[in-house]
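Changelog-adjacent note: as of this version, every example in the card shows the full chain rather than a window. The one below runs 187 residues end to end.
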Amino acid sequence: MHRSMRWVIAGLALLAGQVTLEATVRLPADLTVLVRESRAIVHGRVVEMRSEWADGRRRIDSFVTVEAFDYFKGDLGPWVTFRVPGGQIGRYRSVTVGAPVFRTGDEVVLFLNARGPSIPWVLGLGQGVFRVVDDPRSSGRLVTPPALLAGDTTEEVRRGEASRRPVALAEFGDSVRRLVAGAGGDR
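Full-length structure tokens:
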């Protein structure tokens, strides 16, 4: 086989296996932006998850259902189902960098948005998910911020940073409610 013919075959093989690549750019958002842009802010527990093919079987989306304990903004009912990019169906797995991963039983505070009657989604991918955990020093609950939230300046993420420390759930809820009231309430 001639050398040029090998190049043609190699080129055709590359074209036949062409894959569409997508990129996501996340701009860090601070708590004020998350509150302002969210349609609902819900504290609850993940009770169900399912994954489905989307976009003509080109990607997988997960649908997460949360039992709502409390709303800091809006009200989507006692059970909220929202969409998250990524998931697994059988041996096929789809991963979106920055998308939150949930497990049944997770307790979370979610900043959700939606357009019209569509299924809600989490704002800023993982930025709109605050995990709720037991406080080892008391019988209370703590809210842990996501890995990256915007600050007033560019800063490196450091282990033990004061701004990343968990805060009591009641204190976090009060802060969010004050921000909601300052932004003109529910939209």
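Structural remarks: Confidence is low (pLDDT under 50) at residues 18-26.
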